[in-house]
Amino acid sequence: MWSGQPHPDEGHPPPLEAAPVSWKSVGPCKSRRESPGDLVERCAGEDTQGEEGPAAAQLAVSRLRSSSMEIREKGSEFLKEELHKAQKELKLKDEECERLSKVREQLEQELEELTASLFEEAHKMVREANMKQAASEKQLKEAWGKIDMLQAEVTALKTLVITSTPASPNRELHPQLLSPTKAGPRKGHLRHKSTSSALCPVVCPAAGHILTPDKEGKEVDTALFAEFQAWRESPTLDKSSPFLERVYREDVGPCLDFTMQELSALVRTAVEDNTLTIEPVASQTPPTVKVATVEYGSTNTCALSGLARACRHRIRLGDSESHYYISPSSRARITAVCNFFTYIRYIQQGLVRQDAEPMFWEIMRLRKEMSLAKLGFFPQEA
């Protein structure tokens, strides 16, 4: 008997049997978007509803929630740690900024102090340079004056010490040693008829011949010569030595004792210090040095004697720019004292190489000049 179903032995597969399938509605999944967690929870719940039931779905949801909370807590802790680390770094940066700010302020202060110090040092250097320049100009002016004085002193030294000594006097420099026909009258001096040997000229008209130095009637004062020898062993300009004390008392003091006592004391101090300058009235100040000078007196009044005299010279004391006009007589007295001090300075410096007696007589001659100048005798060319 034939049936509608094929036989298995005939090589055909067995017929499929209908299996029960449970269909689910997917309409809500396609109609709206859901979050992954809700979708997982819902899908998991749907998957487990058919198998385990409501208890399994609740357990899965609780697990998902606990894992989500755990993830949130870990994320929160990580963020807190990062925030704390960022705050620490920010604090360190603030401290570094504050430190750098203090360093900048310190550097700015040091820079200001250095700038002020440099400006102060520059001003100080400028002041010192100006002072040195002024001192140099002053020294240059003094050097020119000293050069002139030294040249005059060298000339006087050659004249007084080398070419004219008591042992071998230079007759051309001493006209009184020449014969009456060659000498002629000395200008500016008056001949006195006195028989005193102190004031009598060397040329004696009555005898008609020249008196040699040995026949002048000179005699060495033993006490004065002993004082001179004691001074010559250790020459000094100290007035406490007996020799100079006598010369000061007998010659220097009276020779520089003028009517104007205050100016006389200043002149005496300048002569002792070798700081007195005598210059002609017609001399001009060098053009390179502009000095505002102060003139005392006039060319018709002597500042030392106060007498009305024709003053062709003026004196300057030390570094002062003040000038004082002096008469020929006052100039002769000052010059005689300056010549004496010049000679004893040469002796002190070892420039005079003579025996004691020629040096003694040269000093006596200078003392004689001071005595004559004190009495009013002076050459007319002065």
UniProtKB/TrEMBL annotation:
Keyword line: Coiled coil, Guanine-nucleotide releasing factor, Phosphoprotein, Protein transport, Transport
Coiled-coil spans in chain: 76-124
A GO term for molecular function: guanyl-nucleotide exchange factor activity
Stored Pfam families: RAB3A-like_C, Sec2p
Compositional bias annotation for Basic and acidic residues: 31-45
Domain GDP/GTP exchange factor Sec2 N-terminal, chain residue ranges per copy: 75-147
Xref: Gene3D superfamilies: 1.20.5.4880
Ranges for region Disordered: 1-56, 166-192
One annotated Gene Ontology cellular component of this protein: Golgi to plasma membrane transport vesicle
GO biological-process terms attached to the record: exocytosis; protein transport
Family to which the UniProt record says this protein belongs: Belongs to the SEC2 family.
Protein name in UniProt: RAB3A interacting protein like 1
Biological classification of the source: Eukaryota, Metazoa, Chordata, Craniata, Vertebrata
